[in-house]
Each structure stands twice: as C-alpha cells, then as structure tokens.
Amino acid sequence: MNLARKETFEGRGILIYLPPSYAKGENRYPVLYVHDGGYLFEDCANWLQHLIAIGSIPEVVYVGVETDNRNEEYTPWPAKALVEGRPDFGGKSPEYIAFLADRLKPHIDSRYRTLQSPEHTGIVGASFGGLVSLHAAYLRPDVFGAVGSLSGSYWYDGYLDYMREQPQPPRVRKLFMSVGDCEGIYKDNIQKWMVPNTIKARDLLLEQGLPAQSLKFVIDAGATHDSVFFIKQLPEAIRWFF
C-alpha cells in the first residue's frame, strides 16, 4: 500500500492510503472510511499489502478520519460517564456522520478515483468506533452500504432500546460484526455486558428482518478488548464487504 498523503479537511486530519495499482491505470476503487485516524489499516499496512498481493483481499482506498474527542463524536446521544470524574459522553455522532456523508465523502470522490455508490462505500471502526459505524447504518444507508462494527460498544446507555424501537433494520448491503469472547470479563460496570449485548444486537437485527446473507458475525475466541484483535478482524471485514 502506498501512503498518498496526510491531508487536512475542515480542520480535521485525514489519512489516505491508495492501493498498489492506483498509479498504474485508470481503475476506480471501493472506499473504506475508518474511524480513529485509520490506525486499523495504518498499523498493519504491510500485512494488508501482502494480502492484496496474494489475492486474499481486494484493493481498496482507505480514508482514516481523526477525531479530537471520540467520546463526543462516536456516541449517539448524551450519557453520564462510567467513571466518576471523567467527562460525560457528548452524543454528537449524528453531526459526525453527517460530516462524513455530506462533506468528506464528496471531497474524497472529487479528488480520487473512487466507486461512489453505497455498495462500494464502507465505514468501519472499533469499540465506540464500532457503535458509530452501526449508527451510520441507521442514519445514512444511502451512503454507507458496507458497515463494520468491531467490538461495538453495545453496552451504551439506551442503544439496544434504540435498536428495538426501529421499524426495520438498517438497509445496508453488508454488515460485519465481531466481538472477543473475553471482552468485559474484567469489568465491574456495564461494560461487562460487552459479549451478551453484542449478541443481543445481532439477534435484534435478524429478528427485524436483516437478511442473514447480509450479516457476518464473528466471536473471536480468546480475544480481549484490545487493538491487536480489532486489527485482526479488518481483513475479514474487507473480504465480506467487497
């Protein structure tokens, strides 16, 4: 993979990787928007390039989007902090999702050779990044047709209730969800429900009519809530999406 550049868009850092063949022709490529600055692909770039070389994953344009405050931007509505003395959660993901869909995506599409339809546009993140990715599926399925929720924070206050209240599941083409079976086992707050709440979220989606062939669900044996396991799931999500 070739690092195209580190850009700034509307005051926010954007990290862009272009696939190996990008400079060699006029092909257009799917795009994957990645939360938390794109560490999910940046920290395993050599591995992804190897997987491309052996034909294990397709070539994709990756767009890493930085945030100054993930507790503000990746949460769907305000909620109290889990730890006394920490800032409360800000609940500004609708604004963040609108930024991605209505301003950043048109900018990327105007500068790079992208496939622009929802089926070729993915969004992925881990932890709160996984939560905001699913929320983007609810709010903007017209833009994001491939959604990756890696260890999504479905313990978040009221989120399962929000899902239950929806008349139908997100109208996305592909949804990838994963969780480690050891996540939350050392917690004594609501985060201890990481695994059962993720399973409940999956079951709700299927009960509401999400086609089984649109969902891939992975329980990663022995995995804790750590970036090494989030990154491990990224190629699986890419294969599923594209």
Automatic annotation (TrEMBL):
Query: Which molecular-function annotations from GO does this UniProt entry contain?
Result: hydrolase activity
* Claim: Disulfide bond is one of the keywords in the record: no
Q: Which InterPro entries match?
A: AB_hydrolase_fold, Esterase-like, Mycobacterial_A85_antigen
On the tree of life, the source organism's domain of life is Bacteria
Q: Name one Pfam family in it.
A: Esterase
Which keywords fit this entry according to its UniProt record?
Hydrolase
Protein name, please?
Answer: Alpha/beta hydrolase
Its taxonomic placement starts with: Bacteria, Bacillati, Bacillota, Bacilli, Bacillales
